[in-house]
Write a structure and sequence with these properties.
116 residues; mainly alpha; Rossmann fold; two-stranded parallel sheet; globular
């Protein structure tokens, strides 16, 4: 495949992905943004033998206070808020501008500071 054709194919795919995830984020904006603190506490010190992959990832991460975390593909911002609520400095990245907007709104609703 020529480089020019490959570039067009990549641009088209990126556009489809952005459109798809923007639509998902718009649907999720109607849901409540405030996360119960019981959800956050669940990830504070999960057990090493938890059967839940995300809890295990938080177990492996250990103490998050003051640590820097980049979340690639942040989606609806649930994990972003959880990480920040546990004290991490989080940089969230997503292909969808609507997802970033939803993550930002969720962070504000959960009183997680957003720094410039």
């Amino acid at each position: 495949m020529r480089a020019r054709d490959e570039s067009r194919t990549n641009e088209a795919r990126t556009s489809r992905e952005r459109y798809h995830f923007d639509a998902i984020a718009r649907r999720q904006m109607a849901a409540p943004l405030v996360m119960p603190w019981s959800n956050v506490r669940r990830y504070q010190s999960p057990s090493s033998d938890t059967p839940y992959p995300l809890e295990y990832a938080f177990h492996l991460a250990g103490e998050l206070r003051g640590r820097s975390v980049i979340e690639i593909g942040s989606g609806d911002g649930l994990n972003t808020v959880m990480l920040a609520a546990l004290g991490a400095n989080v940089v969230a990245v997503d292909i969808s501008e609507e997802s970033i907007r939803l993550s930002t709104d969720r962070a504000r609703a959960n009183l997680v500071e957003e720094s410039p």
